[in-house]
Amino acid sequence: MQAKITAPRALTKPQLPDGSTNPLFFMITDARNMGVPIEYHSDNVIIGPVTEESEFTIEAINGLVAVGCEVEAYPVFFELTATAYAKDVPAYMPNRLIEGEEGEDSTVRAWSDYKDDTHEHVVIGGKHYISSNPFGFDLPASIWIQLDSLAGVTVKSVTEYKALQPTSEDL
User: Fold this and answer.
1) List of residues 6+ apart from 149 with CB closer than 8 A
2) Which single residue of 28, 59, 86, 114 has CA 20 to 30 Å from 50?
């Protein structure tokens, strides 16, 4: 994992404009203390690469995106029920459309078709799992955090996904 967090520079001060404590400031301080590289630019700050999933949880990423940050290259898995897996991919997802042949209309992909030829979906315990890079690039967190609000879709960390895998004792 080589996740990077881009934050508006205004969010890097110890206090927010309303005078309250800025939790992002302490996250940046913790990252710096852990040796995570931080680049300051005129409009934003780039934190990373973050190489350990434990350094930033999905919950922390949800909070970062909620205050205007973006997180890239943070791999996750989408867990879909059979019902959700048969539905169309939401309009905000990239590569949602399958381009039609010349003169034909494009069609909307179902989740079952949401991948390129080099990726496969996995079924564990009747649920379908799709990685956050089904087309060779990781989706930014601002897109995948929206999926948790869909019925039958849950975003899972890599650690949570690996815990679902059968062990040699299970076989």
Assistant:
1) none
2) 114
**Residue 111, Cβ density class (10 Å: 0-12 exposed, 13-18 middle, ≥19 buried):** buried
Q: May I ask the CATH architecture of the domain 3-72?
A: 2-Layer Sandwich (3.30)
What residue spans define the domains of the chain? 3-72, 76-164
Neighbours of 125 (CB within 10 A): 7
Could you tell me the pTM of the whole model? 0.84
Q: Which helix (H) or strand (E) holds 163?
A: helix 158-164
